[in-house]
Amino acid sequence: MIYVNDMPQCLGYGTARLFADDTNLTFTSCSMPVLQNKMSNDLNEIAAWLNVNKLTLNLSKTDFLSIGSRQRIAALDGNIELSLSNTDVRQVESTTCLVL
């Protein structure tokens, strides 16, 4: 039996929302470099948790998006670039959210 509710304990910065086999992580910051650092750290922690529990992250189904007004996002410096195991995590413009 896998206890996915244990996974949020490995997060240092983000908030996890779990629904069946779908997980969404939410992060906030006023700085793109800080945001990227938070997301990278938690993504690596999740990968380590999955590895310990003999699970894998399907990177082809993993993506991220920035949410905010155009003005706020434009005011932040830089872009976010995430990768895990030498594979880039793609940024998308929209996604389906199963979690409320």
Written overview of the protein:
The chain has one domain. It is an alpha+beta fold and 100 residues long. The mean pLDDT is 84. It has 2 helices and 5 strands; from the N terminus they run E-E-H-E-H-E-E. The strands form 2 sheets. It has a 3-stranded mixed sheet, with helices on one face. The chain has a two-stranded antiparallel ribbon with strand order 1-2.
**Count of DSSP helices?**
2
Identify low-pLDDT runs: none
Radius of gyration: 14 Å
Total tally of structural domains: 1
> Percentage of helical residues?
25-40%
Overall geometry comes to globular
Sheet having the most strands: 3 strands, mixed
In percent terms, what proportion of residues is strand?
15-25%
- Strand order in the largest sheet: 3-5-4
Helices and strands, in N-to-C order? Answer: EEHEHEE
Query: Strand pairing plus helix content: what structural class?
Result: alpha+beta
Cα end-to-end separation: 25 Å
Mean pLDDT: 84
Beta-strand segment tally: 5
